[in-house]
Amino acid sequence: MQTAITILLDGLVFSSYLFIVSVGLTVIFGVMKILNVTHGSFYAWGAYAAAFLIGVAFDAGWPDWLGFVAIFAAAIAVGLVLGLILERGILRFMYHRDEVLIVLATFGTFLVLEDVILLVFGVDPYFAYQPMMLLGASEIGGVSRDNYSLSLIALALVVALVCWLGLVKTRWGKILRAVIFDREMAESMGINVTMVYIVTFVIGAMLGALGGAYISPTVSVAPGFGIDVIVLSFAVVVIGGMGSIPGAIIGALAVGLSRALAVHEAPQLELFVIYAVMAVVLVFRPEGLFAPAKPRKI
Amino acid sequence: MNHVKWLIGGLAASAMALAASAGVAQDKTVKMSVVSFLSGPGAGPFGVPGRNGAELIIAAINAGQLPAPYDKPGLAGAMIDVEYVDESGGNTKVVAEYRNMVQKRGADVVVGYVSSGSCAALAPVIDELKKLTVLAVCGTPRIFEESDRTHVFRTMGHATGDNVAAAHYVKEKFPDVKKYVGINQNYAWGQDSWRDFDLGMKALVEGATPSDKVQWPKLFQGQYGTEISALLLDDAQLIHSSFWDGDLESFIFQGTTRGIFQKKKVLMTVAGTAAYRLGKRMPEGIILGARGPYGVLVRDNDSPLNSWFVQAYFDRYGTYPSGPPYQYAQAILGLKAAYDKAGEAAGGFPTQDQVIAAFKGSTFESLAGTVKMALGNGHQAITENGYGITKYDADKGEVTVTDVKFYPAECVLPPAGTDSVSWIEGGMKGAKCN
Amino acid sequence: MWRDKTIVGLTIAAVVVVVVSFFLPSWLLNQALFGFARALAVLGLMVLWRTGLVSFGHALYFGGGAYAAALLSRYYEVTDFFVLLLAGMIATTFVGFVLGFIIRRYRDIFFAMLSLAFSMILYGVLVKTEVLGSTDGFAVSSPTFLFYAPEPGDEAKQALFVALVIAGWIAAVLVQMYLNSTLGRLTTAIRDNEIRVEYLGFSAEHAIHVKYVMSAALAGAGGAFMAMSLGQVDPDSMVNWTASGELVFVTILSGPGSVAAPFIGSLLFELLRTYAVEFLPHSWQIIVGATLLIVIFFLPGGVWSLLGRLRRAEG
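^ Those are the sequences you sent over. The predicted structure of the assembly is below.
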């Protein structure tokens, strides 16, 4: 029983983390049909920026809660700057090209951004443990937990809720759905698709950066930070259905829970299960578990 | 003020020039490639400090500023011309880059390598290219136990010493510990470390049993939330870990919040590298190793070489040297001893074969202890190995270690001609522990 | 066969390369070994690319071939070049044949993702299994050739290179003949309009399956050569998704213009990486990434089209 609770909770924490890091990827794919490898860069840059800002805040002796402000500020700043530069500087010239070629262009950009991190932040790891220490620990099911990780679950819920409300309840959401459903039609109805693309990409970038920024207090932020996250979030998004937000939730839960089970019960299978789930889903439901409607197939 | 600086600079330069011209072959240089992690998660705690240690000792050797017995400038009089090379990118890239270093850029000698993966991959290539190479840090015992090597040397003890010493230390200081679990990275270093510790505990402590939930996360995984839960749920009293690099620090942060260091005894064979970097975030009560007489365990050792090194390193880099600077410096000191000895015997600048002959089976003074090239047909060093317990000294604002205990090299490493596993399994015959 | 100008050109080039290789410094010969070994895999990817399919998981076959050869060498002490090469090819051909039944139904991004998932499964297994070498991989002994056992080192490298050029020549000629066959000519047709191909009475899925198995076999051979040239296999540089990305990168760099392009592109890639690491150790990924972007933006036909342009400018 105790083990079951622990596995469930570990799985939930990891799922929440996965959801936060992959929701941006699915948003961008849903609207723009771009499988964005630079998502890993957003994640890494978010983590570096947050760790850097938290360090500055604590060195200056500012109040502790500012560490949390720093996390969100870092995510927004990185999303804005990198999102705008990449969309305006590279991607907009690619929209008429083959979608696989666009993936490659983002891969090239990812490689470049990896080394720019080294040039900007150096090779030394950054520590920004203060927010994690601040929240302390609590005991659940006989196992001590750090509250910071538990707060990931809350953050995931908030992000999911905001995305859902934004998409369903606002005017912007309607426009977005129109573009997703049929780009040409939306354009002929007078929707400024260019603007929609810019905003979507920047939001996706912010979400990616938020994932890295929020996780940065629990790890040492070091070069190469974004590499593994790319395939991991690909797996989540593919399992749930590329472009679907409920799909990202399901995908995150599937990967998170099966990995937690593996770590506790069969540690050797830990990496294997993630991609096995991905392959099985792709084989039996190529469009993913929650595929959005696909009206155009000529 | 400025004039004084210029004057001192000028004096130093002319002193160096003088020192150089006093050498046996002042026009001769030794092209040395020093390899360590300059990027990636291994760079901060290991690669860059290691390179710094090499940089410091090379500058001192070229200038002839080291205390005796290394006070003659150069390697057998030849100045060292050094390039620093990045080790990251996977074994395949490491091998390809080694070939470039030797065949394209014409290195005379290669020093370095942090990861056991790099060393295991390189060993056969080194002998194929027949280029003198000194492994500085990597720990897997397999290098010299799998086959005889001709051109590879390793100037520090291998993982068996770390983990057998750990078992001795646990037995001596924590006799109640019977059940233990481990979290180790899933590659040669982690696997060998756990295997030797496990065997060592079984050989030394009556009734010792490992848990069946030993964790093997991937190298550079970074997040250990689930693994820490599994360790907390386990009923083992002690956790063994050979984590190093960024993983070590991430694990300490995540574990501290969840109180793992209060609830379990945690033994970390390489925790020495984190002591200065983490400062007061370093949990108290960790059983800390440094893989031999290095770093925080020997900071107060007052041999002239050690005092010089600690002070010079602090002056240059603003922090005390952890293990890797010691280990890189030691590799280069070993080389210098071999070059100087071979040069003296040859009456001029020695050939590579003469250096290798002088290096084989030699004994040299390192910063804080004596190194004997006793294993692997004279290619593998043995040194003493020890542990201590971390304690934060609030007055000085730094991490210190208490209860430091060193075990002699012959106690924790197998005698020549025996491989580690069968030696430990056979009850460590011939171990001299007093 | 000899009426095809490409094949004549390939033959002359192969002979010249073999002769030149005897005068190359060892580091350059090594680069050529790595480059041509990778080129075999890229040749297969190029055939797929002409069909409009890009695989983000061919490291499954490249690494698979390398590991098949390496495992034989480690556990059965096989050193014979022909056995190791065949082992790599047979293993990957078989896996490609089986997976082909599934993957041939997929197109575009789904094809890319499913290949990625398959290759990451192999990665997950390798990294976590100690007998398979986990993160370290293991060493591969220097190859022997039937009754000829060259001295490990330069002599073995030279022998291996000659074998590699012959294998590369055979592969390139076969692919060229295939592309000129009826089934082969469907390659671009499938990319342009699959439904029309079906109306012509051909099965697009069947054609894709054939190409997929072909690319798997070629990648397996390339991997086996890579293992023997390096003397080392490891999951991170051979099976991880970044290795697949590298293969696709070289495919784009080479361009789809000719079966000779992969060999030129791969060699260029090796040199690019070597010099980038040497001169800008902290920024070599910037150079590699920027090259990829430049090729995508300004050189959609890859370096091969650049050669064509030069030729036209001269003529």
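The beta strands of chain A are 137-140, 143-146. The CA atoms of residues 77 and 206 of chain A lie 8 Å apart.

Shout if you want it in another format.
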